[in-house]
Write a structure and sequence with these properties.
Elements (H helix, E strand, L loop, with lengths): L2 E5 L6 H7 L7 E5 L2 H15 L6 E5 H10 L9 E3 L2 H10 L7 E2 L2 E3 L3 H7 L5 H8 L2 E5 L6 H9 L7 E5 L22 H10 L3 E3 L5 E2 L4 H11 L4 E2 L7 E3 L3 H9 L3 E5 L10 E3 L10 E6 L1 H8 L8 H11 L6 E5 L10
Parallel strand pairs: 1-8, 1-9, 2-3, 2-7, 4-6, 7-8, 10-11, 12-16, 13-14, 13-15, 15-16
Antiparallel strand pairs: 5-6
């Protein structure tokens, strides 16, 4: 059965590709990591058909592991999943030698995938094949550590499997366990080669053009970040740094221009959000607010040296705009702080 990874650029229509392949004549499973993307997928399926078809099932990742793979087979009372990192840290101190996913009837999120991989009592692959004819995973770049191993195990399924994502938009990680799998994300080639190792056909061309971003924005990203992305429309737009006091003020009070901050966007009096939180969204015009480290690298034209996670969030922020992309120094807008 066909196993395929489609590596796509920002705004190229990753999710739409999945929606286009949906059918009322087969049982379809879609898995994604974030709740926001799960809600977006459901909304788009509803929009396509005018109702939500009973043959299409969209799961959040943890929801799928817990409700579909584990609960039907568990012999202990299942009370839910523990996600709180502080609680998990305390549990680890007491049971550091164990990867048993159950603690007082609760399942520990970061151990679920490893437990499934290490047990022969739960044949999750056979269960998936029994209930579904094809499987899709959206935003596949978010899966890491043991969770990445688990989705790789799906290469053994006897149904078509399609993974869709953008290596450079890895702003989240499903879970982490020490240094497990760290080297995979050091560069794109490592990540791609992992999928090839498991027999996936890797498509780097189908979604290489962004339907959202202008040619000017795409050129900026290629030149400054070293990320290949092309514009589907070829539209020209503005990409400029604003340091004129009056123009900075105009941008800050213009709610039609969304201001994207590295963090703590809520502390400023403007239409804003953080870089990472903007993933999956589209705006007409965007102003990226540069924190000190990014501002320094921006001036030196060395943005490619940003730490991987920061670089991913910056890339996400820059690719939210359909038209103009502005940059301002965060130090120049202190008077817009709420407190």
């Amino acid at each position: 059965m066909d196993k395929r990874l489609i590596n796509a650029v920002a705004g190229s229509g990753k999710t739409q590709l999945i929606i286009n392949q949906l059918s009322l004549n087969s049982r379809i499973l879609i898995i994604t990591y974030t709740q926001a993307n799960q809600a977006s997928l459901k909304k788009r399926v509803q929009s396509k058909y005018g109702y939500f078809p009973s043959n299409i099932h969209i799961f959040g990742y943890w929801e799928f592991l817990y409700n579909f793979c584990i609960v039907p087979f568990t012999t202990v009372p299942a009370k839910g999943i523990i996600f709180d990192s502080n609680i998990i840290r305390e549990i680890d101190k007491k049971r550091f030698w164990s990867t048993n996913p159950v603690y007082k009837g609760y399942f520990i999120s970061k151990y679920l995938s490893k437990a499934l991989l290490n047990t022969s009592k739960i044949n999750y692959k056979a269960r998936i094949e029994k209930y579904f004819d094809s499987l899709y995973i959206d935003e596949v770049q978010d899966f890491s550590s043991d969770d990445l191993d688990w989705i790789m195990s799906l290469s053994k399924l006897n149904i078509p499997v399609t993974f869709v994502g953008d290596f450079y938009q890895k702003t989240y990680s499903t879970s982490q366990r020490g240094n497990k799998g760290k080297g995979i994300f050091k560069k794109k080639e490592n990540w791609i080669n992992l999928f090839k190792k498991y027999g996936f056909i890797v498509d780097n061309q189908k979604l290489i053009k962004s339907r959202r971003c202008s040619k000017t924005v795409c050129n900026f990203i290629m030149q400054e970040l070293g990320i290949e992305i092309h514009s589907y429309t070829g539209e020209e737009s503005k990409v400029e740094f604003i340091d004129n006091v009056n123009k900075v003020k105009e941008i800050m009070i213009d709610d039609n221009i969304v201001k994207l901050f590295y963090n703590n966007a809520k502390n400023f009096k403007c239409n804003s959000m953080n870089w990472g939180e903007s993933k999956g969204l589209t705006f007409e015009n965007v102003c990226v607010v540069l924190n000190k480290r990014t501002y320094d690298l921006f001036n030196r034209k060395e943005l490619a040296k940003l730490a991987p996670t920061t670089k991913a969030k910056f890339y996400v922020a820059c690719t939210r705009s359909k038209h103009n992309l502005y940059f301002i120094d965060q130090n120049s807008i202190s008077k817009f702080k709420k407190y």
